[in-house]
Structures are given as structure tokens and as C-alpha cells.
């Protein structure tokens, strides 16, 4: 039997309205069977747990700022903010941390750490707010530069093909010529920061893709594939924590100048998988040398990952969603913009 506890103390700051607070708590006992974790007590002997590195407790220094949160939030304007104090316990291991979410004019950012950094994040989002709205027609497969947020979303979706419970790409398979991707739960600044996963396994940085070759699956104590350490949820499933795409040696300006008749994707509203294609829905797009255009989505079949031919040395911490952090560069590949 394993005991799982999660308590979230949540403070919402709504611009122009004020502050409200809520608390969410989960406490369950779960049991390991051949088919995975269950919440109902089972008859007979439980399944043996795989050998793994035991968890250790951790309390983030940022927790000290929780008592001053109302004062910190009172200094913000024109943004919506949610701050969570997380207390997670699995058997005897405890983790406490602060997660911060900021939204301005449709732009979002999330990080783990001190709430006192919220104003700097809000100011950053305000500087990023732009609008482009020229409509064009008839774009074909072409060179596309993905900004760091779009790059992160691309590989966020690709991770679904590398889950240890149902891998759809073979270990050792080459998916690109040079891309390297890590899962790094131990980056304390990213929203997915966790010192142990939801099965109580100590987390570690994993190289998932190395120089374009699939090296590792996202595994749990119950998956046939992948080493444990990527369990997430009350009834855990394999998932990554923080996506890190390794930079290379292209300068951003060099990349722009080298890309003829190309499209640049600036930010992503959402992303999804359609069969064996990853679709990105851009926040903004621009034809290089021409200006902003409206593009509904970017279709990137998995085989187009082999066309990645440039990776910038500049990287940026980006928002993927409320559970996954990311740091990524600009990349260039072939893709098909869909404009209608």
C-alpha cells in the first residue's frame, strides 16, 4: 500500500476585481496490481514494486514568501495571477513548493519559485504583446522557423509517442539529424519542478532524445518500458516534467537572414496530435521579409522532424501548460501552414 496526499492552497488575483482563495486536498491509499495502481483494497498479496531510487523530502525556500503574498499581489496591475502553495506527501517523503501562473492579454507564463518575481514576469508579458492580422492564401510546404514556445510545444506533443505504457517509436530510431531533448524535473525555476514523482521515485534529468536518436521512454513503476521516475497523477501515468531542448550554434539573426521565403511562428495558442502529425496553432506568424500574416495552424508530420537543419544558440523559458515547463531555442524545419 502507498499513501498519496496532495494539498493545494490557491490564491487568485483577478485584475480589477481582487483576490479570492481556495484549498484543494486529496488523500488516498492505493494498491499495486498487475494492471497498475488501484484505489480499492485488494485481496491477497500486492505486486512487488520495481527496484528504484527512493525519494527524499524537499521544502523550497520560496515557501517563506507565502505569508507576504497579499502584499506582493497588491502591487500588480492589468494581469491575472494564480499562486499555489503545494504540499505533496508520498509515504514519508514531503515536497513543498510555490507555483506561479501569470496571464496578460492572452499571453501566459508559469514558473516555480518566489512570488516576489511576479512583477518582473508581468512586465515581460506586457512587452511581448503584439498583434498581426494580414490574411493571405495559398502557402505550401515551406521553411518554417519555430520560436522557443512553438519548439517546446512541438516536442511536448512528441513526448506522447514515448510514453512507457504505449510507446509508438522504437528506441534507437532516428527522428532527426541533430535535436537533443531532456526531461529535467530538477530545474527549480520551471513549473514542473519535482524532486520525486507521484510514485515516490526520486527524479533525475533524463536524456530522452540524443542527437536525433530516441534514447529513453517515460517510465513508471508499472510500465514495461522506460526507467521509473516519470509517474504523474493520483493514479499515475507516465509523463515528463520539464522539457529542455538543447541549443546549437546558429545565431538568431543568422537564421533569419539564411531563411528565404520562410515563415516564422511566434507563440502558440495550443497544440495537438492528428494521426502522425503535430499541429501548432500560432498566436502570431510572419512571412520573413514581408510582415505579419494570419495562419490558422502549422501541420508538422513526424517525418518532417528529419528536416530540422538549424537550431539557435539563443534559448528562452516558455509556457507550455500548467504542469509542464520548457526551455527551448528557435529551430527551422519544413512544414505546411494551413491558412483557412
Write the layout of secondary structure elements.
Elements: E1 2-14, E2 18-33, E3 36-38, E4 58-59, H1 69-73, E5 80-90, E6 93-104, E7 107-112, H2 118-128, E8 142-146, H3 148-158, E9 181-183, E10 206-210, E11 213-214, E12 231-232, E13 237-238, E14 242-245, H4 252-258, E15 263-274, E16 277-287, E17 291-293, E18 297-301, E19 310-319, E20 325-338
Parallel strand pairs: 4-6, 8-15, 14-20
Antiparallel strand pairs: 1-2, 1-5, 2-3, 5-6, 6-7, 8-20, 9-10, 9-14, 10-11, 12-13, 15-16, 16-17, 16-18, 18-20, 19-20
Q: Percentage of helical residues?
A: 10-25%
Percent in strands:
35-45%
N to C succession of SSEs: EEEEHEEEHEHEEEEEEHEEEEEE
Largest sheet: 7 strands, mixed
From the spread of the alpha carbons, the general shape counts as globular
Q: Number of helical runs?
A: 4
The N- to C-terminal Cα distance equals 53 Å
Q: Which spans have pLDDT < 50 for at least 5 consecutive residues?
A: none
| Number of separate domains | 2
Using only CA atoms, what is the Rg?
A: 21 Å
Q: Provide the structure class.
A: mainly beta
Mean pLDDT: 93
Number of E strands: 20
